[in-house]
């Protein structure tokens, strides 16, 4: 459907001014930017200097966004090419073809990629090798720590007096060093020039202070007035008595201790003489300031000096060694352009137009770079730049983004006749009720004025209109669910993770509330699925809600386990979207936790995590019973194991675990860290466990990387320092990595953070924990672009008032609060068809009235809208429900329907005691076939021994190698668009290509097989395709249970039909009964996922001329087979009991 552009945007496309576009959520800003890019090129066609893509600099903030922008520009150019071809407009076609051919030279990328290209081009001019490399966070931190430690020691030795004050404040030097590294990181992330802070801090030590004599006179005058008060109040009498008792001599020789005592006795209610109290207090505070401000200023200068000198050494080292990070890139390029006018002029000449997307996420250094490119002598060039963004969605302040930059450009730089500010206010994403609700709610939340330091007031400019009407099939579009238990005793015993600090009770309450919200969340999801309607964007038709249409957005993952636990208990399939960070990987978290536990076995939080992890795989009930006893100081050797929860095998494993822990707690200091890791892995067979997991290669590579870090660590025997170092690396890794989304067709509820959801949209959004408290930043440092101040608690034995610090601190608090508003706004505006907000109101919970939840509750109660729903849950019993789909099935455990098998579902169980067994589908199919072939007189053989895929892959067998490569291609194959498939790309991405006999032939067979599938399945492109679908099928008999693990090669399904396909890299010889049994087990698993058996089951013989073979399996066959499985399981149980088979 063609877009109808407004007159305002048509003017924009002419680009006769500079433009600032404030693009609200869902307003199509990327579409607008793409059109602007094309129109700039087309409009220049008949000018004296027609532009080409290399003359337009288009910048954004992520590689993903840059790639999308480039692809959409290319697609738009192809559209215009077809139009000109159809219109037989040769001139237009030739010009567009030239643009298309030159698009590979287009400067469309991130700030960092642009700086990389520029620095490579002018590296000699800057004095760095053109072969410089970007180093990772780990290597960068090692360099930074090295030079900070060296600089810190030197400066502390030179300024022992002030170093002592800092050590008194931070207790140990490591604490101060860690703070310093964090400050350094923050300064660089914000793009603040360290040299500027350093030069300005020099002024502090030269700051003139008033003469003490003047203030002493003021104090004495005030004391005389107080002493001469007739009929003084009791408070004043007490003050005068204290003054006599202290025998203070108010002269210039008054000691600091006497001054503090005088300050302490000025208190109480002075009635009508309050003015004298205030006058005296101000004078005393001023004298304290005169005495101590010079000390504070010199300490401030010392800190900035350390940062400045360390930074100089770091940069010098990096340039000499040709290793830099992303912050260095920006700093070097800005420095280069500032110092070299010739290069700057060349850049200005080349980049005739500059387009910046997501401008609200700019930091100070990025802004400086842009000003260099688009300003001349401090004046913005005309027709030069267009910035696009939404200041209400600026949520990356922790990475250095400053929303005020875009506000300043809008209100100051673009406040002239050659500039235009445009507001894109039509929301094409959300239905009308959601848009109206967001407008009304955020008019109240973002209600400040810019006079009080508030950046954004949600005025009419920011209000959105909706291009979509509500879905009439639904009774509501917005709902607020309030759990109001008034402190009900709903604490779940499994949530024993309490914090070891004064706020432990509050934190425990947070955990409990999140678990309760999780139960309400599960119930709401259960109500939505199959009953609520959402818009299918592919067909533009309504469809019934599935799990995959629902996304839960959290502020952070702090208490995500509680939500996961509740969903798991209620059989709701879900996937928590984790970032790509190395330190966020489950296996790395598990190992680091184990190391921490070896060092401190009494850390119950870490103990719980390790017992829950694959090292032990204990249940929450078992963990609770163990930890409860340990917290009551019961010795490990005297632990009581309730036979209802612990088998004999469990007892032995747990005792063995604690013996291991005790032994290595006493001797770890004598081992290298790498050696300790090896012992842990061998004892608990951790690598063997990972090898059996989905994505095993990546998990094992992560473990090897951690071992490499341990070996490379300077002090290889100091595990405490190593753990601290890993914690620093964890903090330094990006707080919110780009989301690693699963296939959008995966039928699971997604849980992610608001930051991960930025730029995305979902049919149904649920935002829990809207009653969370405010963020409290307690850093001892505050800095701006030009100033740097500190506040020390122990300088005078109490908080020392620093007005300069407090001034910036007030600004920071406002900025932090506004960031929270913007994060909440971003969460609410991800929803297309339904927005659900949740909160817990608990009489023990602090500050409910100041939360978003209270504002939501008050706002909804005032509204009279049929489409906005307010639901209160006041009893725990209201959270009880049965997941109907799961209840009808004999199979009772969660089935994770996608590639994300939860680790805890692979417990190493004792087969005899628990009668619960894990098989792969292939193994169990072999067992059933053996039973059938021997007339059920089965004699145990090696069928139960798992095949090791890694070992198979290493065999010099071309058939196996060819089969593995074929599966690799099919796993990554794009069934919808063959243009995205490329044999060379698959070969480049494949690790073991040496044993493949004929890659071209394999690829040819796969192309032919896919074409056969497309011909076989009518309306092929209407099917959802799932590839490499893992599952766990749990079948329960009376006394025993079996869990089958398998992976379905490919699944095609839509609302009417399910088609199962399994690949075999061979030719068809005769019907293979084992294959048939395997497919029947797959069919049972699909019944659990979809509630129905597959309509068709094919085996695809990739090497056969007749690629597809339809298996003749009826629903009746499958029902009979599901009953027979338990007979086979019974046979195996007999073998175990008789001792014929030892597992």
Keywords:
1143 residues, single chain, six-stranded parallel β-sheet, 13% strand, alpha/beta, 50% helix, globular
Give an overview in words.
This protein is an alpha/beta fold and 1143 residues long. Helices cover 50% and strands 13% of the residues. The protein contains 41 helices and 29 strands. The strands form 8 sheets. Strands 17-18-16-19-22-13-23 form a 7-stranded parallel sheet, sandwiched between helices. A 6-stranded parallel sheet has the order 3-2-6-9-1-10, with helices on both faces. A hairpin with a 4-residue loop joins strand 14 (533-536) and strand 15. Helix 12 packs antiparallel against helix 13 (256-265) and helix 20 crosses helix 21. The longest helix is centred in the N-terminal third of the chain and has 48 residues, at 274-321. The chain is globular. It starts with 6 loop residues before the first helix and ends in a 5-residue tail after the last helix.
In short:
The protein is an alpha/beta fold. It has 41 helices and 29 strands. The chain is globular and about 115 Å long.
**Strand order in space, largest sheet:** 17-18-16-19-22-13-23
- Helix coverage percent: 40-55%
The whole-number mean of residue pLDDT values reads: 82
Tell how many strands the DSSP assignment holds: 29
Furnish the topology, listing elements before pairings.
Layout: H1 7-14, E1 18-23, H2 29-43, E2 56-60, H3 63-86, H4 90-102, E3 107-110, H5 111-121, H6 123-126, E4 133-134, H7 137-158, H8 160-170, H9 173-190, H10 194-205, H11 212-227, H12 234-246, H13 256-265, H14 274-321, E5 323-324, H15 326-339, H16 341-350, E6 353-356, H17 364-374, E7 375-376, E8 379-380, E9 385-389, H18 403-413, E10 419-424, E11 426-431, H19 432-445, E12 465-468, E13 478-484, H20 504-528, E14 533-536, E15 541-544, E16 550-554, H21 560-569, E17 574-576, H22 586-599, H23 604-612, H24 620-631, H25 648-667, H26 673-684, H27 686-691, H28 696-712, H29 719-732, E18 749-753, H30 754-757, E19 762-767, E20 781-783, E21 788-790, H31 803-828, E22 831-841, H32 852-862, E23 868-873, H33 884-888, H34 911-914, E24 916-920, H35 921-933, H36 949-954, H37 958-972, H38 983-989, H39 999-1016, E25 1024-1036, E26 1041-1053, E27 1058-1064, H40 1073-1090, E28 1096-1101, E29 1108-1110, H41 1115-1138
Parallel strand pairs: 1-9, 1-10, 2-3, 2-6, 4-5, 6-9, 11-12, 13-22, 13-23, 16-18, 16-19, 17-18, 19-22, 24-26, 27-28
Antiparallel strand pairs: 7-8, 14-15, 20-21, 25-26, 26-27, 28-29
Helix pairs in contact: 1-2, 2-3, 3-4, 5-15, 7-8, 7-14, 8-14, 10-14, 11-14, 12-13, 13-14, 15-16, 15-17, 19-32, 20-21, 22-23, 22-29, 23-24, 35-40, 37-39
């Amino acid at each position: 459907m063609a877009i109808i552009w407004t007159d305002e945007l048509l003017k924009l496309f002419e680009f006769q001014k500079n433009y600032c576009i404030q693009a609200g959520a869902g307003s199509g800003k990327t579409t607008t930017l793409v059109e602007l890019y094309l129109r700039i090129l087309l409009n220049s066609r008949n000018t004296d200097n027609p532009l080409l893509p290399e003359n337009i600099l288009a910048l954004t903030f992520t590689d993903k966004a840059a790639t999308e922008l480039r692809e959409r520009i290319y697609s738009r150019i192809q559209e215009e090419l077809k139009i000109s071809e159809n219109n037989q407009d040769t001139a237009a076609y030739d010009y567009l073809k030239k643009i298309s051919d030159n698009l590979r030279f287009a400067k469309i990328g991130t700030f960092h990629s642009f700086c990389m290209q520029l620095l490579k081009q002018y590296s000699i001019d800057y004095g760095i090798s053109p072969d410089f490399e970007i180093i990772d966070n780990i290597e960068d931190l090692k360099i930074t720590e090295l030079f900070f430690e060296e600089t810190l020691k030197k400066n502390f030795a030179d300024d022992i007096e002030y170093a002592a004050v800092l050590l008194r404040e931070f207790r140990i030097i490591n604490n101060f060093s860690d703070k310093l590294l964090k400050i350094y990181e923050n300064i660089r992330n914000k793009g603040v020039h360290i040299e500027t802070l350093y030069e300005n801090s020099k002024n502090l030590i030269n700051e003139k202070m008033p003469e003490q004599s003047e203030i002493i006179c003021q104090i004495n005058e005030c004391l005389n007035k107080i002493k001469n008060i007739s009929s003084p109040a009791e408070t004043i009498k007490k003050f005068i008595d204290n003054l006599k008792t202290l025998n203070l001599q108010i002269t210039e020789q008054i000691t600091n201790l006497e001054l503090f005592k005088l300050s302490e006795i000025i208190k109480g209610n002075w009635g009508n003489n309050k003015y004298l109290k205030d006058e005296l207090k101000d004078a005393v505070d001023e004298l304290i300031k005169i005495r101590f401000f010079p000390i504070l200023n010199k300490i401030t200068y010392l800190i900035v000096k350390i940062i400045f000198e360390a930074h100089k050494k770091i940069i010098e080292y990096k340039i000499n060694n040709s290793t830099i990070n992303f912050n260095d890139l920006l700093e070097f390029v800005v420095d280069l352009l500032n110092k070299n006018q010739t290069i700057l002029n060349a850049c200005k000449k080349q980049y005739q137009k500059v387009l910046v997307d997501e401008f609200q996420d700019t930091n100070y250094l990025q802004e400086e770079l842009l000003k260099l490119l688009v300003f001349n002598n401090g004046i913005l060039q005309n027709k030069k730049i267009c910035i696009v963004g939404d200041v209400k969605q600026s949520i990356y302040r922790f990475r250095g983004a400053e929303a005020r930059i875009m506000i300043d450009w809008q209100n100051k730089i673009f406040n002239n006749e050659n500039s235009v500010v445009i507001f894109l206010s039509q929301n094409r994403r959300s239905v009308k009720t959601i848009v109206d609700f967001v407008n009304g709610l955020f008019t109240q939340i973002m209600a400040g004025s810019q006079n009080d330091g508030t950046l954004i007031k949600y005025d009419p400019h920011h209000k959105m209109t909706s291009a979509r009407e509500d879905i009439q099939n639904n009774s509501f579009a917005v709902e607020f669910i309030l759990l109001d238990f008034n402190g009900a005793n709903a604490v779940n015993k499994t949530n024993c993770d309490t914090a070891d600090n004064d706020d432990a009770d509050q934190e425990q309450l947070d955990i409990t509330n999140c678990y309760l919200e999780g139960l309400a969340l599960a119930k709401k999801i259960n109500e939505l699925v199959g009953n609520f309607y959402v818009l299918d964007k592919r067909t533009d038709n309504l469809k019934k809600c599935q799990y995959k249409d629902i996304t839960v957005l959290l502020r952070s993952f702090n208490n995500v386990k509680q939500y996961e636990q509740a969903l798991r208990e209620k059989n709701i399939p879900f996937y928590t979207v984790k970032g790509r960070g190395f330190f966020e990987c489950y296996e790395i978290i598990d190992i680091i936790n184990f190391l921490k536990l070896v060092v401190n076995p009494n850390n119950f939080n870490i103990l719980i995590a390790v017992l829950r992890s694959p090292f032990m795989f204990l249940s929450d009930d078992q963990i609770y019973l163990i930890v409860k006893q340990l917290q009551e100081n019961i010795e490990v050797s005297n632990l009581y194991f309730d036979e209802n929860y612990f088998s004999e095998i469990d007892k032995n494993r747990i005792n063995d675990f604690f013996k291991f822990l005790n032994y290595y707690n006493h001797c770890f200091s004598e081992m290298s860290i790498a050696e300790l890791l090896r012992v842990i892995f061998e004892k608990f067979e951790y690598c063997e466990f990972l090898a059996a997991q989905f994505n095993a290669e990546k998990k094992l590579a992560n473990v090897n990387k951690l071992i490499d870090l341990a070996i490379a660590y300077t002090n290889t025997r100091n595990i405490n320092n190593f753990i601290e170092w890993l914690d620093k690396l964890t903090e330094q890794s990006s707080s919110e990595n780009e989301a690693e989304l699963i296939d959008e067709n995966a039928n699971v509820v997604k849980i992610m953070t608001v930051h991960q959801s930025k730029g995305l949209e979902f049919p149904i959004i649920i935002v829990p924990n809207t009653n969370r408290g405010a963020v409290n930043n307690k850093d001892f440092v505050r800095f701006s672009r030009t100033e740097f101040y500190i506040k020390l608690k122990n300088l005078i034995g109490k908080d020392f008032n620093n007005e300069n610090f407090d001034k910036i601190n007030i600004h920071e608090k406002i900025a932090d609060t506004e960031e929270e508003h913007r994060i909440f706004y971003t969460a609410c505006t991800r929803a297309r068809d339904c927005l659900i907000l949740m909160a817990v109101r608990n009489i023990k919970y602090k500050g409910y009235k100041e939360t978003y939840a209270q504002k939501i509750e008050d706002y909804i109660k005032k509204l009279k809208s049929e489409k906005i729903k307010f639901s209160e849950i006041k009893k725990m019993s209201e959270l009880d429900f049965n997941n109907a789909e799961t209840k009808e099935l004999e199979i009772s455990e969660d089935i994770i329907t996608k590639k994300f098998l939860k680790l805890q579902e692979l417990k190493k169980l004792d087969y005899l005691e628990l009668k619960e067994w894990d098989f792969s589908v292939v193994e169990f199919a072999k067992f059933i076939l053996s039973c059938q072939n021997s007339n059920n007189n089965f004699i145990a053989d090696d069928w139960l021994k798992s095949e090791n895929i890694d070992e198979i892959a290493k065999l010099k067998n071309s058939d196996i190698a060819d089969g593995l490569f074929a599966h690799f291609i099919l796993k990554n194959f794009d069934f919808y668009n063959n243009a995205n498939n490329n044999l060379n790309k698959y070969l480049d991405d494949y690790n073991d290509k040496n044993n493949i006999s004929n890659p071209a032939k394999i690829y040819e067979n796969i192309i032919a097989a896919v074409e056969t599938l497309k011909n076989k399945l009518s309306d092929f492109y209407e099917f959802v395709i799932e590839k490499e679908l893992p599952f766990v099928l749990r079948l329960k008999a009376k006394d025993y249970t079996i869990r089958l693990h398998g992976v379905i090669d490919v699944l095609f399904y839509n609302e009417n039909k399910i088609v199962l396909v399994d690949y075999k890299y061979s030719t068809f010889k005769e019907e293979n009964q084992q294959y048939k049994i395997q497919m029947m087990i797959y069919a049972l698993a699909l019944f659990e996922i979809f509630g129905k058996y597959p309509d068709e089951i094919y085996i695809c013989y990739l090497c056969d001329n007749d690629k597809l073979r339809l298996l003749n399996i009826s629903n009746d066959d499958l029902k009979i087979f599901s009953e027979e499985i338990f007979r086979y399981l019974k046979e195996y149980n007999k073998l175990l009991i008789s001792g014929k088979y030892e597992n």
